[in-house]
């Protein structure tokens, strides 16, 4: 089915005669105030700057929170830089050429995470060239979007989990998300009950298993947890297990959210066709940048399936402004680029009373700090 254009994202004009002159990468590491896992208190990002023949310099990023930063940077510095030098600086023109060139190394994963650094930098350059924010370059649909509170909190003791839920309520969120997947499902039941108790019946509650369960475990766990009026269950199974999702989808009473570990529009189509997913959650970096993110958004709109972007609110929040359907942006406490001290200038988005707005800075508006890896 092809939707009328008013139900898809805007048709961004990124055409340019400029070509890519050079690419510079800088690895950055931030200490996490609230580590996602107890033994990995660091988050890694690759800053990618692309210089164009018209003198414009676009700044982008490859987000590699715990795994793969060195491999991603090496791919950008070698094969990608060699290929893109002298080619069009139009991100929508370059993306399919670069993907075809790299495909032998893998259609998604490290390949697309590395491509995102180039793609986001070229979208930034396109906005700077036109003195337009990313939102206005693509086509603004709204002036603010709701934010939901999200916790990477499976390792939190119960009292810390409850305290976090209290902070979410105070922050004005209408929806929140917590981790599940303890070895004993009874502990998950206690923790979900505690958070539901804090947030009350009127706020929506989502749970995220981060691919921890097999099919029988997921079915049993969801049976137990569904009494808490869940808005969605996220990644109950391995993201690769399309057959498992098809089975689960056929019997599950809770909507299934999935997508932060799908890397191409083809994989999103596979899961939608299975059918195995009710809410798609692309991560703008993992899918290869803004160009493929918008393609996935159009696919979701065509299938009438909600899209909820995964993390990176500084970028995802801007993209949420251009989507035809309103969506909620995910905010993990003290884990965005702003809170981690990775921005050299003001953030391109603001969050207040549970809603996100943009500042209108040209391009993507994300200027990462320039100091090398290892800063503290
Ligand atoms: Mg998740």
Task: State the CATH architecture of the largest domain.
Answer: Alpha-Beta Barrel
Identify the overall geometry: globular
Question: Can you give the mean pLDDT?
Answer: 95
Main beta sheet: 9 strands, mixed
Helix content: 25-40%
The CATH superfamily title of the largest domain: Enolase-like C-terminal domain
Write down the secondary-structure element order.
EEEHHHHEHEHEHEHEHEHHEEE
Number of helices: 11
Associated small molecules = magnesium ion
| Spans where pLDDT lies below 50 across 5 or more residues | 372-376
CATH topology of the largest domain: TIM Barrel
Concise synopsis of the structure shown:
With 376 residues, the protein is of the alpha/beta class.
Account of the 3D structure:
This protein is of the alpha/beta class and 376 residues long. It has helices at 69-84, 91-102, 110-130, 134-138, 158-171, 185-199, 215-225, 242-251, 265-273, 290-303, 313-320, and strands at 20-31, 42-52, 57-63, 145-150, 175-179, 204-208, 230-234, 256-258, 279-280, 329-332, 349-352, 355-358. Helices cover 36% and strands 18% of the residues. Mean pLDDT is 95; it is low at 372-376. Magnesium ion (MG) is lined by residues 208, 210, 234-235, 260.
Question: What's the topology here?
Answer:
Blueprint: E1 20-31, E2 42-52, E3 57-63, H1 69-84, H2 91-102, H3 110-130, H4 134-138, E4 145-150, H5 158-171, E5 175-179, H6 185-199, E6 204-208, H7 215-225, E7 230-234, H8 242-251, E8 256-258, H9 265-273, E9 279-280, H10 290-303, H11 313-320, E10 329-332, E11 349-352, E12 355-358
Parallel strand pairs: 4-5, 4-10, 5-6, 6-7, 7-8, 8-9
Antiparallel strand pairs: 1-2, 2-3, 4-12, 11-12
Helix pairs in contact: 1-2, 1-3, 2-3, 5-6, 9-10
